[in-house]
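Subject: for your reference before the review

Hello V.,

The reviewers asked for a structural picture of the protein, and I figured it would be easier to keep everything in one thread rather than splitting it across files. Below is the amino acid sequence we used in the manuscript, unchanged from the supplementary table.
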Amino acid sequence: MARPVRCRRICFEPRYDSFAPLGKSSMEQIIMTVDEFEAVRLIDYEKKTHEQCAEQMGISRTTVTEMYERARIKLADCIVNGKTLYISGGNYALCDGSAWRCCGKKCSRAKCAAKAAGKRKEDSMMKVAVTYENGNVFQHFGHTSQFKVYEIQDDRVTGTQVVDTEGSGHGALAGLLSELEVDVLICGGIGAGAQTALAEREIRLYGGVSGSADEVVEALLAGNLSYNPDVRCEHHGEGHHHEEGHHCGEDKRGCEGNGSC
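And here is what came back from the structure prediction:
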């Protein structure tokens, strides 16, 4: 099992969260996580060393280097190929000097999720949705027929409901989650378009997850959920494999919780 990803400490969220080529409408989009942005800000803008950046963010130097390199590759891809950049999501917590903060200690994943989803410090209520089938995490977001929605208060589940999606396509599903006032989504495989739709609605994503739905939510609350921050569906965008004909959620061999379909 992969080692749980530690919550990354950041000073503030980006003031500008999207960038696009002037005079060009780009259909191709790149998502940089907020913690990747923070690594670039500290190293390139504030001229800190990787070690200083790691200390400030509360993670290892190796993790900083990996995030920084991913972020630079994404920036280069946008600049060279004229793609639109969105800054959203990631595994982070704000260090704001208030009563709730994670400075100097490992933070609760649920609190990180609430902070990332824009929750007020005094409001610990949030909703977590899981792509759902027969008690387990369904392995393709775009074809899930149900979500199980968990109401969370003070790091514990206070209520659940199973919701039929009654539709298809990532745009409709993201819209449904927004109507349900969901803050966090847990799923298996998910394409780039769906990730963008979720980011636009400020729904935090934990992809590449498999297993019992109830157990993964408990793992989220305990701060030890294993997930893939770079999850994607490998077949999206191929000319012979369109969204409407994509059946990876029906093929149990197709998505094994690693984001591949």
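For the response letter, the relevant points are probably these. The first strand starts at residue 8 and ends at 10. The first helix runs from residue 34 to 45.

Happy to draft the paragraph if you're swamped.

O.
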